[in-house]
Amino acid sequence: MKKNRTQIAGWALGVFLFALLEYLLIRFVDRPLSEYLRTVDIRYPDVTDFFRAYTDLGLSKWYLWPTGIVAPICFAFSRWRQWPRKKREKLRAEGWALAFFFACVAISGLITDILKPMIGRARPVLLDRVGVYGFHPFAYHANYNSFPSGHATTAFALAFALIALWPRGRPLLIAFAIAIALSRVMVNAHYLSDVCAGAAVGWLTVVLLRKLFVQQRWIARKG
Q: How far apart are the C-alpha atoms of 173 and 180, rounded to whole Å?
């Protein structure tokens, strides 16, 4: 009971600190940073082009299609009795690892896709027209789908899902996720608070799914 109360208090503190961070970013950082990055795009277009070159690595399709195809194949071959038992067990384990990865990216992306129109935050392109506080809930238009960032959600879900399976890759994977998230700010597609929210959605989805998959013994706990 005491452990549960401690966990609840920890989560509550985490939510409070995250909400405070988002408030501070929206209130004091998003607008001046976005305005500054506009000048960077004009003065140093090569810098912006550099970030545009890899920002689309945050699109979920690059990861959902391969894992969504290969995972069922692994499960199918793991039931082929003509193969040795150890080989079938290995294929089954690989299938569950791919399924875990697929679920993390897909579910986190679905959550973000639901939140975007519900919150209806205007993108930086509309900054001069509606300001940084341009929230229009249930505005079903791409220009009002800024919060949270879908690319950041995918990047952090991908990174933490892979870390759960390959802990030694943590530094490289975190660097990759941060680079994708920052690219969305650098190309002025999102505010900094948007990518922080996307990162939180991706991370939290992986935390909850990892707990489920480990409890069901579909994947092993590593690290």
A: 11
